[in-house]
Design goal:
It is elongated, with a radius of gyration of 21 Å. It has helices at residues 12-22, 48-53, 89-105, 108-116, 140-151, 174-183, 204-208, 227-236, 257-260, 276-291, and strands at residues 2-7, 27-30, 40-44, 59-62, 80-82, 133-136, 156-160, 169-173, 187-190, 214-218, 239-244, 264-266. The model has no long low-confidence stretch (mean pLDDT 97). The strands form 2 sheets. The chain has a 7-stranded parallel β-sheet with strand order 8-7-6-9-10-11-12, with helices on both faces. It has a 5-stranded parallel β-sheet with strand order 2-1-3-4-5, with helices on one face. 33% of the residues lie in helices and 18% in strands. 38% of the residues are buried. Helix 1 (12-22) links the parallel strand 1 (2-7) and strand 2 (27-30). The chain has 2 domains: 2-87 and 274-292, Rossmann fold (3-Layer(aba) Sandwich); 90-266, NAD(P)-binding Rossmann-like Domain (Rossmann fold), CATH 3.40.50. Helix 1 packs across helix 10 (276-291) and helix 3 (89-105) crosses helix 5 (140-151). It starts with a strand and ends in a 15-residue tail after the last helix. It is of the alpha/beta class. Bound molecules: NADPH dihydro-nicotinamide-adenine-dinucleotide phosphate.
Length: 306
């Protein structure tokens, strides 16, 4: 079995070494335009030229969970596209989102400002029941996040396409359920894949339906959020703040208003990083199962876009 590795913006050598060690029966090599044809590919942000030169791939294993960028390319039609599922990402995502929600709920930004002024002053405790958190997307990451928030006893709501039953989470689904989901949510967390159906979903109309004083946590993709609609609702006071980890343009341009907005926290797409060792182990496991003709988790439905 031959595996071509094409990971732009990451060091390729450790991926090749790791995959070769995990799959000693395979020939693992870095892709170059003159490389031989492979049976499988392990990729992150490959150029179109990669797929043009590899028309017979059986499997394409993405080293991330989101496949929106990959689906903009022309992949060989017969190739099965497989994403990472979890591989150490869901616990990072749960940490990140719980931190953002608790920081807002417990007003830690305010206490930080007080500290700078040497001010000792309590704020009135808020009630969890006033802070229902709504998680859009109840997949691998969304479910873990929703359950971590529920463990802190926030009322947690979740929204997905198909009906779901997640312990401790009030579940909504589909178009119909979306309006009810939004209307009872004060803190909105986005963990949807980016597809034609979900692009711009956090727009003025939908964000206006959140309970007043709402807070937005976007850890999915920048194009889920309409930047100017968020800014308008922050300035009108309908929204109290936002923690944003992903942006339409990354790195976030130096002159973007999010950088300096007092109610917006910016992080550089770091909420859940790909962990190389866990990812290599998962890809190796899936590759072997795939070769044996067994079903594997994380196969992308190209029509649905995730
Ligand atoms: P999954 O594919 O496991 O879950 C996606 C969820 O979104 C599913 O519950 C699905 O519903 C739901 N969904 C999709 N389309 C719709 C729709 N139109 N309406 C309602 N619900 C919908 O993905 P993951 O949880 O693994 O990852 C989610 C996203 O997180 C990734 O696509 C990626 O963009 C982002 N991400 C961000 C990272 C970061 O560092 N910021 C790191 C990793 C991922 P159903 O279950 O019914 O199909």
């Amino acid at each position: 079995m031959r595996i071509a590795v094409c990971c732009t913006d990451q060091k390729v050598a450790p991926w090749i070494e790791g995959l070769a060690a995990a799959l000693p029966e395979a020939e693992v090599f870095e892709w170059r335009p003159d490389a031989p044809e492979a049976d499988h590919a392990v990729v992150w942000a490959p150029p179109q030229a990669f797929f043009d030169a590899q028309p017979r791939l059986k499997g394409v294993f993405n080293t991330g969970a989101g496949v929106d960028a990959l689906l903009k390319l022309q992949l060989p039609p017969q190739a099965t596209l497989v994403r990472l599922d979890d591989a150490g990402m869901s616990v990072q995502m749960a940490e990140f989102v719980c931190h953002a929600v608790i920081r807002h709920f417990r007003e830690f930004d305010g206490y930080e400002r007080d500290e700078e002024q040497g001010k000792w002053g309590f704020r009135k405790p808020r009630l969890r029941s006033d802070y229902p958190v709504g998680v859009m997307g109840l997949g691998v990451l969304g479910q873990r996040v929703a359950q971590a928030l529920a463990a802190f006893e926030f009322p947690v709501r979740g929204w997905s396409r198909a009906t779901k039953d997640v312990p401790g989470v009030q579940c909504f689904h589909g178009e119909q359920g979306f309006q009810d989901f939004l209307a009872g949510t004060r803190v909105l967390v986005c963990l949807l894949p980016l597809t034609d159906d979900t692009r711009d979903i956090m727009n003025r109309a939908n964000l206006s339906r959140l309970l007043p004083g709402g807070y937005v946590v976007n850890v999915a993709r920048g194009a889920h959020l309409v930047d100017e609609d968020l800014l308008a609702l922050l300035d009108s006071g309908h929204l109290a703040g936002a923690a944003l980890d992903v942006f339409r343009t990354e790195p976030l341009p130096a002159d973007h208003p999010f950088w300096r907005h007092p109610k917006v926290t910016v992080t550089p797409h770091t909420s859940a990083r790909t962990l190389r060792d866990e990812s290599i182990a998962q890809i190796a496991r899936k590759l072997r199962a795939f070769e044996r003709g067994e079903p594997i988790a994380g196969v992308v439905d190209r029509k649905k876009g995730y």
